[in-house]
Amino acid sequence: MFVTFEGLDGSGKTTQLRLLAERLTAKGQTVVVTREPGGTELGEAIRDLLLHGGNVAPWAEAALYAASRAQHVEEVIRPALARGAVMLCDRYVDSSVAYQGIARGLGLERVLDLNLAAVGGLLPDLTLLLEMDATVADSRMTGKRDRLEREDASFHARAAAGYRELAARFPERIVVLDATLPPDELAERIHGAFLSHS
Ligand code: TYD
Q1: Ligand 1 in contact with 151 (CB < 6 A)?
Q2: 2 CB under 6 A from ligand 1?
Q3: Is the C-beta atom of 158 inside 6 A of ligand 1?
């Protein structure tokens, strides 16, 4: 089963991914945890260019995220799924559609098409979208901000709107959850969504 976590920076998706991984591992399931951009040697190098480099043109940005993802699918995701593991991935195609397609304005369809080509059509079985208002998410961000996190509030609000558009388009796959719920309650709901999709 292929599960992805999506949401704005500050929505708590990384913590929730870890909690689900711990819960499934404790039940004896083989779980593989990974993240995007990154997850492979090439992907981590691309991540560095994207998050800590200088100016990146919008289509260069979309293409770099897609390149990292193509490598990730081939090297990590497909082999793990073939072994029967539960694959938990922090961000995937929906991030590119929300951030590059909608927030950067490159277009939902064009960025979705680019990514579907890059991943050979592989979409998750379940996507947990941790929804949170952009200003609240912004106030929860700690530490030094990367290039994307330094974008203004309207960029992050457009990304949030992009996620809502995706949830309406893929209602079976994308489960929308209120990221402001207490973490343990959110973890319960995520586990429930996992069980009902497996
Ligand atoms: P993330 O791994 O969530 O950052 P962190 O390690 O700081 O938690 O993602 C880094 C940034 O990249 C995030 O601001 C969202 C952005 N991003 C895109 O714009 N498009 C994409 O396809 C992906 C995967 C991430």
Answers
A1: no
A2: no
A3: no
Please state the domain count of the chain.
1
CA distances 190 to 89, 102, 130, 161, Å, are 14, 26, 10, 22
Ligand 1 centroid to residue 28 C-alpha, Å: 30
Q: Which of 1, 2, 23, 4 is nearest to 128 (CA)?
A: 4
Residue 159 CA: nearest ligand 1 atom is: 19
Structural domain that includes position 62:
2-197
Instruction: Please count the other Cβ atoms lying within 10 Å of the Cβ belonging to residue 175.
Output: 19
pTM for the structure as a whole: 0.96
The pLDDT, as a whole number, for residue 139 is 87
Mean pLDDT of all residues in the chain?
Answer: 95
Q: From ligand 1's centre to the CA of 147, what distance in Å?
A: 10
Query: What stretches in the chain show pLDDT beneath 50?
Result: none
* 139: CATH: 3.40.50.300
Strand order in the sheet with 174-178: 31-35, 86-90, 2-7, 126-131, 174-178
